[in-house]
Design brief:
heterodimer; A: 315 residues; mainly alpha; two-stranded antiparallel ribbon; globular; B: 276 residues; 9 helices; 2% strand
């Protein structure tokens, strides 16, 4: 217990001091890592814990991003309430998709979510006077509690806070009644029903939560990147998020964090081979699915159980 | 798993042999020898005898944990399959991009030419070739699935992999052939499409609409897929003509979502069953 807290404290200290040592590109990557951690934590609740395939996680990011940016641009609200509205809008639409989709599973669910993804992309493209269409939308610098966030440093700390909040939330959700119900639904829907878990409602909660996480990360991504267009929220982004959680470890918050951080940092190690990026990501996903189905988290667990590495004490 | 005596004291493959009874005249010691798939007079396998209890699944049915060390995709759970196919698609597209970039290059078909006048209609010969290919392909597939042993084995595996295995069908090799068959038909579609819209890495985007067509028709019905494709094309074109391009783009995905939610087995498909 104590050593785990110590590790967390050390990590927090490193994360707080890190931007002082980073260049501007590394700082930008660190910001993207935070954003991806949030999205991956949400997707892992839905896919890793509840076992529902979702190919439209990036659509909910798009909804969160466009909703919060449009609220800021149109109504002049400050950033935090706009972010909350964006998150809420994404969660609401997640519930709207989850309500009918709770009866589907497997391939059919993948198809519905793929259809939803295309629908969202087309709708963004077809209403250019509102969303900027294919030419994209530039997002103003955010204002938090009356202070304009101009520097990347300040934004980094905002994102760090949001990511810490999301990880804390996901970790607690996973150990809550809901989290355990998600796991039961994934392992056997029939057994879960026999235990009195309402199948439909549990899936609906998972969809809503995942969409909310995605909306939050989308709203943050809009301000971190400063510009967005519909192609950014396509199937490849969704697959990238799935890669995060598969490589990190399905059904584990630590896995989401590991996967998102390592794979977002990957371009840094692949410098000069930009054109191979898609190939490398897809190959990593495939290799991980085939040879490491429990992800890096599973690998670490195995190492710990072999006593090659001392495991930090868990509560 | 193979060397451990099972709960019933018989090794799984031995028990499988016992279950399949005399249909496969096998040496009881050499459990490995393949059972024969001998169709009876009506073309169905002679013995459709299912054992009362088989507690070890002979094939890793989707959703079950696969055996350790089995890295083949055919034995993987459904989530892995769905995501892995997307990953493979991405790898292929990225590999194409490495060499040819994102350019659309023209592809001249030998049958391309000026529009033919058939009575009052003027028809692009490419379309006639496509319709002819479709008809021929459907004919071949119907014959294959109805008339040949291999096609029937494929249908048996689709209905119940475990029972098919007990009839002596090699389930994994059937899965593999099914992938090959689907890929081959996809390639034919690509070849027919390329002269119309040109070759680029995203030519496979059309697959989303093909999936919509398959969903409309029902995944289990070949005729349904054809009818679904026609219906989708007609609906899309008419919606475009009457209500504008926005609706034309939205229609397929709207149909996909609504139909999967209301009638996931499709308009012509059989009912989906779920067993505990």
């Amino acid at each position: 217990m104590a050593s785990r807290n110590l590790v967390m404290l050390g990590a927090a200290a490193v994360l707080c001091v890190a931007p002082l040592a980073l260049g501007s590109y590394q700082l930008y990557l660190a910001q993207l890592m935070m954003i991806n951690v949030i999205a991956a934590a949400g997707l892992n609740l839905l896919t890793g814990n509840c076992g529902q395939i979702s190919l439209c996680h990036s659509s909910f990011m798009a909804i969160g991003a466009y909703a919060s940016a449009l609220v800021v641009i149109r109504t002049g609200l400050s950033f935090l309430p706009a972010l909350a509205i964006g998150t809420f809008a994404a969660a609401l639409l997640g519930a709207c998709l989850g309500y009918p989709a709770r009866r589907l599973s497997g391939l059919y669910l993948a198809l519905v979510t793929l259809g939803f993804l295309q629908l969202v992309q087309i709708l963004i493209e077809e209403f250019p006077e509102l969303t900027g269409g294919v030419r994209g939308l530039s997002v103003p610098k955010p204002q938090v509690l009356g202070y304009a966030i101009r520097s990347d440093f300040a934004l980094y700390y905002v994102l760090l806070g949001a990511a810490a909040f999301a990880v804390f939330l996901a970790d607690n959700l996973q150990r809550s009644r809901f989290g355990r119900a998600f796991n039961a639904v994934r392992q056997s829907a029939f057994a879960a029903q026999a235990l009195g878990i309402p199948l439909g409602r549990t899936k609906l909660v998972a969809f809503t939560l995942a969409a909310g996480f995605a909306g939050l990360s989308g709203g943050l991504m809009a301000v971190a990147v400063g510009f967005m267009d519909p192609t950014e929220f396509g199937i490849s982004t969704s697959l990238r998020q799935i890669t995060f959680i598969v490589v990190g470890g399905l059904g584990s918050v630590a896995g989401s964090v590991l996967g998102a951080v390592l794979l977002t940092g990957l371009p840094e190690f692949l410098r000069g081979t930009q054109e191979y990026a898609d190939l490398v990501y897809a190959a990593i996903l495939l290799g991980s699915l085939l040879f490491m189905p429990r992800g890096i988290k599973g690998l670490l667990d195995d190492l710990w159980s072999l006593r090659l590495v001392r495991k930090p004490a868990t509560p | 798993m193979a060397d451990r005596p099972s709960a019933r004291g018989v090794r799984p493959e031995r028990r499988q042999h016992l279950c399949a009874g005399g249909a496969c005249a096998r040496d009881p010691v050499q459990g490995q020898r393949r059972a024969q798939f001998r169709p009876g007079r009506d073309g169905h396998p002679r013995r459709l005898y299912r054992p009362r209890a088989v507690d070890q699944p002979a094939v890793a049915v989707p959703g079950r944990r696969r055996a350790d060390g089995d890295h083949r995709l055919v034995a993987a759970p459904e989530f892995t399959l769905v995501i892995a196919t997307f990953a493979i698609g991405l790898i292929i597209k990225a590999a194409i991009r490495l060499h040819w970039q994102d350019n659309t290059s023209p592809f001249d078909a030998p049958y391309a030419g000026p529009a033919l006048a058939i009575g009052p209609l003027r028809v692009n010969p490419s379309y006639l070739v496509i319709i002819a290919c479709l008809t021929a392909l459907v004919g071949v597939l119907v014959t294959f699935f109805r008339g040949t042993k291999f096609g029937k084995a494929m249908r048996a595996v689709a209905i119940d992999p475990r029972a098919a295995r007990l009839m002596g069908i090699r389930v994994e090799s059937i899965f593999m052939s099914a992938w090959a068959l689907a890929a081959g038909i996809g390639a034919v579609a690509g070849l027919l499409l390329a002269p119309l819209i040109g070759i680029n890495p995203e030519i496979g985007q059309l697959i989303v609409k093909a999936l919509v067509a398959a969903v409309i028709g029902g995944f289990t019905s070949l005729g349904g897929a054809v009818a679904g494709g026609l219906l989708l094309g007609v609906l899309e074109t008419f919606c475009g003509a009457f209500f504008g391009a926005t609706l034309k783009n939205i229609v397929p995905f709207g149909i996909l979502i609504v139909l999967l939610l209301l009638k996931p087995q499709g308009l012509f498909g059989g009912s989906l069953q779920q067993r505990v």
